[in-house]
Amino acid sequence: MRTRYFRIKEAVPAGGWSLGPLLDGQGQELEDPTAFTSGRPVHAPVGLRIRLRETGRRRDFNLAGADRTPVVHVKMAALLEEYSPQEVQLMPVSIQGCRDEYRVLVATTLIRCIDDKASEAIQVWKPEDRRPDELGHYRDIVGMRIDPSQVDGAQVFRIWGWSDALIVSEHIKLVLERARLTGADFEEV
Predict the structure, then answer these.
(1) What is the chain's percent helix, strand, coil content, to nearest 5?
(2) Cβ atoms within 10 A of the Cβ of 85, count?
(3) Banded model confidence at residue 164, pLDDT cuts 50, 70, 90
(4) Does residue 121 form part of some domain?
(5) Mind listing the pLDDT tens digit for each residue in 129-158?
(6) For the chain, what is the domain count?
(7) Does a structural domain hold residue 152?
(8) Are 124 and 100 in contact (CB under 8 A)?
(9) 129 domain residue, yes or no
(10) 7-20 burial by CB neighbour count: b if 16+ within 10 A, else e?
(11) Helix 74-83 vs helix 170-178: angle between axes, to the nearest 10 degrees?
(12) Residues 6+ apart with CB under 8 A from 189
């Protein structure tokens, strides 16, 4: 039986809180917050913090700041460490009123696996776009599909060329759903 994969998206119910960007120990925004969504291990500064943009109901899965860095409750962190320890890095982060309850989640595996033909529509950065840092990466994807034969059994990963997408296997999805964690929606890819 073929393994299915899902993109984790943030489910934001009415009355939910909103998290600002990652801050260093001195309260300054990080110089390169995209490192946390790059699909590679991160050397994070000590004392990571997040300010609340809006107060409200807490969730177990959150995307923080404009870079959409995953921030998870320790319950979710423990499950990810148990079922995919080689593919995740979890770093303590302080959030107002939630001391020691949350972790920044970094997927440490990056896989080139988008199925261009099976996806509804894709746009790739071209030389005429004048973005040499993005050349060859995906500019936009509608109805993204991946080629599971390229994944090689990974449970949690980022996609090369489209680091916006945090992907989990069906097994991880089921583990998280059984735990009744809040804040995560799953879209099959």
Answers:
(1) 15, 40, 45
(2) 12
(3) confident
(4) no
(5) 888 888 888 888 999 999 999 999 999 999
(6) 1
(7) yes
(8) no
(9) no
(10) bbbbebeeebbebb
(11) 140
(12) 5, 6, 7, 144, 145, 146, 165, 167
Question: How far, CA to CA in Å, does 46 sit from each of 22, 49, 62, 133?
Answer: 12, 9, 21, 29
> Would you state the pLDDT for residue 1?
63
User: Model-level pTM greater than 0.85?
Assistant: yes
Cα–Cα distance for residue pair 163/179, rounded to 1 Å? 26
- Containing 174, the helix (H) or strand (E) segment is helix 170-178
What does the chain come to in residues? Answer: 189
Question: Residue 119: pLDDT above 80?
Answer: yes
